[in-house]
Structure formats: C-alpha cells, structure tokens
Amino acid sequence: MLKRAANTSAIVSDILDRLRKRLTSITGQDIKDAIAEIEKLRQRDDMLKGLENGGVDNWDWYSESLKDYYKKYYPDEVDDE
Asked: Against a cut of 0.90, is the pTM above it?
C-alpha cells in the first residue's frame, strides 16, 4: 500500500510540474488574444441571436446553409442526401 501511495505521489508531482511549466509559458499576449477571441465569439453569438429573432431560420435555404456546420459538429445526426 505504501509503495502504491509513493508511486501515486510521484505521478501527481510530475503532473503538477508539467502544469507549472505550461502555465509559466503563458504570456500576457496569450491572455489578450484569448480575451479578444472570446469577445469575437460573443459578438457573433449576439449577431446570430438577432438573426434568429428576426426570422432568419424561416428562410428556405437556412438548413442548406448550415449543412457543413451540422456535418462537422453533429456528424451522426446528418443525412448525406
């Protein structure tokens, strides 16, 4: 039991060391870039909500225009017709 605990401790220590190295390699610019990307995604989400609220999902070609999206994110639910 003690041998297993010591081995587990070594594994946890190794994982923590690798995490510390990754975290210290993150720069301020990386954080700024991530924040900018999140803001772009929020803006696109707001735009999509506005389009959907305006009835864009009732357009004849709406499903066709999203076919690639559904294939990428929901491949098991898409008919390849």
From this structure: no
- As a whole number of angstroms, the distance between CA 12 and CA 49 comes to 44
> C-alpha angle 62/52/72, rounded to 5°?
50
Residue 24 lies in a domain: yes
Q: Does residue 80 lie within any of the structural domains?
A: no
pLDDT at 42: 92
Task: Provide the 3-class DSSP secondary structure of residue 39.
Answer: helix
Domain containing residue 21 = 2-75
Q: Please say whether the beta carbons of 78 and 67 come within 8 A.
A: yes
- Has residue 81 been placed in a domain? no
Q: Find out whether 56 and 62 touch, Cβ atoms under 8 Å.
A: yes
Residue 29, CB half-sphere, CA atoms under 13 Å: how many? 1
Q: Is 46 helix (H, G, I), strand (E, B) or coil?
A: helix
